[in-house]
Amino acid sequence: MQLTTEMEPLVRFSGVQKTYDGEHLVVKDLNLNIKKGEFVTLLGPSGSGKTTCLMMLAGFETPTSGDIFLGQERLNTLPPHKRNIGMVFQNYALFPHMSVEENLLYPLKTRKISKAIAKEKVDKILTTIKLKEFAHRRPSQLSGGQQQRVALARALVFEPQLVLMDEPLGALDKQLREHMQLEIKHLHQQLGLTVVFVTHDQSEALTMSDRVAVFNDGVIQQIDTPNNLYEYPANSFVAQFIGENNTLPGKIQSKEQDTCQVSFGDGFTTRALAGNNLKSGDKTQLSIRPERVRLNSGHMNLENQFNATLHEFIYLGDHLRLRCELAGNDQFYVKVPVNELCPNLKAGDRIQLGWSDQDVRALDYQ
Amino acid sequence: MTSALAMSQPAISEKVPGLKAQLRRAERLRKLKAIALVAPLAIFLMIAFVIPISNMLWRSVDNSEVMQVMPETARLLTEWDGKDLPSEAVFSLFAQELRDSRTGGGLGRIGRRLNYEDPTFRTLLTQTLRVLPATTETTWSETLQSIHPRWSETETWLALQRAAPATTDRYLLAALDLKRGSDGNIERIEENQRVYQQVFVRTLVIAGGVTLICLLMGFPLAYLLATLPTSQSNILMIFVLLPFWTSLLVRTAAWIVLLQSGGLVNTTLMTLGLIESPLQLVFNRIGVFFAMVHILLPFMILPLYSVMKGISPVYQRAATSLGAHPFAAFWQIYVPQTLSGVAAGTILVFIMAIGYYITPALVGGPSDQMVSYFVAYYTNTTNNWGMAAALGTFLLIATLLLYLVYHKLVNQKQLIRN
């Protein structure tokens, strides 16, 4: 039995479609499995269908076709209040007319849990979120970060099998947001929660998740670990959306297994890792991370070397970004640690850029 | 960094002489501008609101008629013990001042005032004046008593004494069906003359009933308005505001047309065979409720709507995600957040209803008339400003009390919010 529960996904989307107007599909044929204890992030630009997926899981939207399972139970027609799923809302949705404690007691009251036990649970979770002395404050008397923690506690206090978070950190400032990202991640590890997290902030997704599903146009473009997503983007959308990325349009000259020869610009060629479904003669988009481009690469023995023009320095404290022109693209960025930069370099100089075969990918042409 | 901080520290704590004066000078122009902007409204409120209301409050205790027309008599009468007939001096002064009162309309004023004490007093005064000798060389106590036997009754002089002080509580007491007995204690008036306690209770009952119906009908409608998509709620809003486009009088008259025994409602019901004979729907309490609810409903809906518009639907979602049935979520999470709107709408409708005059006067029966009807009656028909003002004063007190309650409620709401 133990074995099957570990094998079986906790949440299963199977062929789920959703349309609001009967003409356009907001979610197209979604298949997604989430294991128990996993932290999965749905990442995508606004209108990509990620929030709709979350709302279908929470029960506030119903799938037009397809099935959603939580454990063995088919969720499609189950009303939200019977799903036993905790949810953290974008603006917390703490009840303004109740104190922190009353807010936390609410889900226990609806479950008719005896007062003594409920009180005990609330005390315990207030200790976990370190807000014990704020129990009798109103939500409006708390700071944004404290409200966020209460919202989190309210979604956890009734020990749901699944916790959903809908851009919960969007309203916080940068420092607090980064702090809360770690705090949520630690809670996830500590309590063994299964979390589905929605965000449009890619760095948040990379920081927190076990797996990230990148949404665009109602379709999951790629679902993978943060590391794989960054290093091995499946298509140019993912490459563009996750992290910084330089793109160069080109054409595949020849292809051997997983590498290929690509021509781009005016007579440049490079070797690159070949994306799926590309064949010789196809148009392609080369994708290369700014930190993988090497400056003054003459002595580095790299396979691909090019001359470029340096246009601009952008100082960012720990590193510099150089805006260069390469093969007609004047938005080509190179990321250089400050101490590795030659002090004589100035805008307008001709420089040499290079990269390894393994760091550039030929992806689908957009 | 630290040195810069150390440098700036004393500058902050050091008191700059004349800084306050500088600030005042700098702020003066701004203040003057602000005052100039609110001045028209302040003056308008003063003229149209504060002065009339103070005047009304004053009239409810004003008793200056006798004092003004017969100042000397009034002064002496207040010193009189009321046991035996007053002294010759009182008679003499009274006769003089009565003669003088013929000029300048004084006689009419005291006549009206003294009639409240005794309904035959004015006649007594005019009869006496008609035969009053022109001479001053006479014993006035005997002359007056010979003119009319009532001048030899202490009761007549007592009535005059009661009307003599500058202020009186008789109107305020009368507005509550009370009076001062001959011993000066407050007592209830005879049962068959009691009117106003019943009228006040009736006013509160009608206003309360109208408010309750408005709340029950307005709450769902306001909720619908606040939750519908904008395009649909805009159309609905026009229907809510439609009643404001026609005059109150026209709308009230329209209800009479609709509800009368040969009216649209009754004929329809009879044609459908639902009733045998016409229902009495107008010129009674039902008509009053129909018309008043119709007129006051928008005043309930609008404050409710404005509060509901500000409540995010996400709270109810949050509640259901926490396991509450949608009805429970509505009742436990949504409704408490609308309470400030409920309080505002309720108080607004109640205060407006409590002072309603035209509608009950037109569509109500004799037993549906509210306090305002009697205020109008006393001002327009009998010219008894004292009674009109006393009734108005109690209406004002009721309104102020309600406002205080509302203020408390709203303050509590704000405490919750902050």
From TrEMBL, chain A:
InterPro entries: AAA+_ATPase (IPR003593), ABC_SmlMolc_Importer (IPR050093), ABC_transporter-like_ATP-bd (IPR003439), ABC_transporter-like_CS (IPR017871), Mo/tungstate-bd_C_term_dom (IPR008995), P-loop_NTPase (IPR027417), PotA-like (IPR005893), Transp-assoc_OB_typ2 (IPR013611). It catalyses: ATP + H2O + polyamine-[polyamine-binding protein]Side 1 = ADP + phosphate + polyamineSide 2 + [polyamine-binding protein]Side 1. GO terms for molecular function: ABC-type polyamine transporter activity; ATP binding; ATP hydrolysis activity. Keywords: ATP-binding, Cell membrane, Membrane, Nucleotide-binding, Translocase, Transport. The keyword RNA-binding does not apply. SMART domains: AAA. It is an enzyme of class 7 (translocase). Its EC number is 7.6.2.11. It comes from the Bacteria. The keyword Methyltransferase does not apply. GO terms for cellular component: ATP-binding cassette (ABC) transporter complex. Pfam families: ABC_tran (PF00005), TOBE_2 (PF08402). Residues 11-242 form the ABC transporter domain. Belongs to the ABC transporter superfamily. Spermidine/putrescine importer (TC 3.A.1.11.1) family. Part of the ABC transporter complex PotABCD involved in spermidine/putrescine import. Responsible for energy coupling to the transport system. The complex is composed of two ATP-binding proteins (PotA), two transmembrane proteins (PotB and PotC) and a solute-binding protein (PotD). This is Spermidine/putrescine import ATP-binding protein PotA. It comes from Nitrincola tibetensis.
UniProtKB/TrEMBL annotation, chain B:
The keyword DNA damage does not apply. InterPro entries: MetI-like, MetI-like_sf. Residues 200-406 form the ABC transmembrane type-1 domain. Pfam families: BPD_transp_1. It comes from the Bacteria. It is a multi-pass membrane protein. It is found in: Cell membrane. The keyword rRNA-binding does not apply. Belongs to the binding-protein-dependent transport system permease family. CysTW subfamily. PANTHER family: ABC TRANSPORTER PERMEASE PROTEIN (PTHR42929:SF5), INNER MEMBRANE ABC TRANSPORTER PERMEASE PROTEIN YDCU-RELATED-RELATED (PTHR42929). This is ABC transporter permease. It comes from Nitrincola tibetensis. The lineage of its organism: Bacteria, Pseudomonadati, Pseudomonadota, Gammaproteobacteria, Oceanospirillales.
